[in-house]
Structures are given as C-alpha cells and as structure tokens.
Amino acid sequence: MSAVVLDKVTVQAGGEKILSNLSCAARENDFLVIIGPNGAGKTTLLKVLCGLQQVSSGTVEILGRPLNEYSRRNLAATVALVPQDMSLEFAFSVGETVLMGRAPHLGLLEQEGEEDYRLAREAMRFTQIEHLAGRRLDQLSGGERQRVMIARAICQQPRIMLLDEPTAALDPAHQLIVMQLMQRLRKEEHITVIMVSHDLNLAAMFGSRILLIKEGRELVSGSPAGIMTPENLQQAYGCDMHVDIHPRTGTPRVSLVPMPGS
User: Fold this and answer.
1) Cα three-residue angle 59-65-57, rounded to 5 degrees
2) Residue 219 gets which letter from DSSP?
3) Which H or E run contains 233?
C-alpha cells in the first residue's frame, strides 16, 4: 500500500509556481529522501503532505485516503513533521516538549493521562534523551534538540514521519545518530520516513528511495544506485560530481569535481 501519493500537484504563491505538476509516491515503510538544489520546492512538498500548504491543483492521498478528507486532528495523529527550525521562544523542558506530541490524541481541555506519560517516556528512551527530561530546550546542543523534536514526533504515534533537513548543522557523529534513529523507526515501529536532505551521501547511504526534484518538478526517482549518477546530479545542480561506490556500505558515494583552474 502507498503511504503517500501526489498526482500532478501544483502549488502557487504570489503568481509563482513552487511545485509544478509534480507526481510522486512513497510506499509504506519506505525511507524516501527528497533531494534537489535550493529553491526546488522540497520543504513545500513536506508542507503539502502534512496539510500546512494548500495545493492549487492535483490530488494528494495519505494511506489511500484523500488528504482533504482528514480532519486537522486526524491528520496530526497520522503524519508527524520535524521542522528544520524550532522556536525557542518559550523555555519548555524536554519532558514537556515530548509530551506535546500527545495533543492530537486528546480531546478539548483533556489532560494527559498515565498512558500519555508512558508513551512520552518510551519516546525519550527510544531517542536516548531520558536523562535530559528536566532540562530546558535552550540548554541543549543542536543534536540534543533535534532528538527531542524527533521524540515529540514519535510520541504522536504517527504512521508517517516527515523531516526537513534533520542533520543540518550537526557534526558527523550526531548526523549518524539521527539517521540510525530513522532506520530504527522503520524497522521497529514500521513508520514511513520521508526526509528532505542536502547531504547526498547520507541520502544514498540510508534512503530506500530517492526523489530528485528541480524547479518544483520531478527529474528522476528510484533507488539510490539508479538516481545518484553524474548525469542526474549535473542536471539538477549544474556542477560536475564524481560518483563511485563506498567500499564498506556498497552505496553510491558522491564528491564534488573542482572547476578547471580552481
């Protein structure tokens, strides 16, 4: 069964097309990584999938059901978004922040119960941040905050998790921690993961499928081996890249080719 299906989706803002007649799909339990140059429409695509961006034309289905048939609460209980930027305007604790993931499952004015607290503890344990439960978000490192937001999304108990550049500005060790968390979510919790990334090597190493877009349109989609070719990447990014095979993972490995004379 398909987790998400977009059919000829167009998104316009201020008379400009951000997505243009875009069709794509992700199967249940996929790890779909969306790549492409700046301004390609990657973040807008995530916003479409979680109902934060209206489409001008085309259709969107979530788990075989039209997106517009979901109530706001039902969609939030089905699809979780981990944004690239998080507000630190209010100094909530880690435990309070993770517990916010239960909001879609609570009625109006309903208080969290023991089951909600149990799920929050499990989410913190899964992401290895339970020791930070009493700390404020503004006291954490970037890698720790990223895991808190993932824990909050896990606490929603979604079927689909969307992540916008979750490894941006993280050091290599924390990048690996985040990506391995996504793999565990797929294998242990059977969650479909859809992630935007500028890191081509992480995309190739962990993605089960790659969607390469440019100017709001799909260029190609498929397996990492089929997508990560010098020709496809040059068409998308406008620069030469060398692609070989990583000797340990067997996945495509991408490196920039310097311009002549540089």
Assistant:
1) 10
2) E
3) helix 230-237
What is the distance between the alpha carbons of residues 26 and 159, in angstroms, rounded to a whole number? 12
Per-residue pLDDT tens over the stretch 199-237:
999 999 999 999 999 999 999 999 999 999 999 999 999
CB neighbourhood size of 24 (10 A)? 18
Q: Angle 242-244-249 (CA atoms, 0-180°, nearest 5)?
A: 140
Check if the beta carbon of residue 54 is closer than 8 Å to that of residue 30: no
Nearest Cα neighbor of 198 from 232, 149, 164, 158 is 164
Q: How far are the Cα atoms of 6, 100, 101, 194 from residue 157, in angstroms, in the given order? A: 23, 12, 8, 15
Which phi and psi (to 5°) does residue 44 adopt?
Answer: -60, -40
Closest CA to 140 of 88, 178, 83, 85: 88
pLDDT at 87 over 70: no
Length of the chain: 262
Q: Residue 3 and residue 83: Cα distance in Å, rounded?
A: 20
What is the C-alpha to C-alpha distance for residues 4 and 27, in angstroms, rounded to an integer?
A: 7
Burial label, 165 (beta-carbon count in 10 A; 0-12, 13-18, 19+): buried
Among 158, 151, 190, residue whose Cα is nearest residue 70: 158
Residue type present at position 63: L
Instruction: Look up the pTM and report it.
Output: 0.93
Q: Report the sign of the C-alpha dihedral through residues 133, 78, 84, 183, in that order.
A: positive
Pairing, β 252-256 against β 241-245? antiparallel
Q: Give the whole-angstrom CA distance, residue 235 versus residue 36.
A: 10
For 138, which DSSP code?
A: G
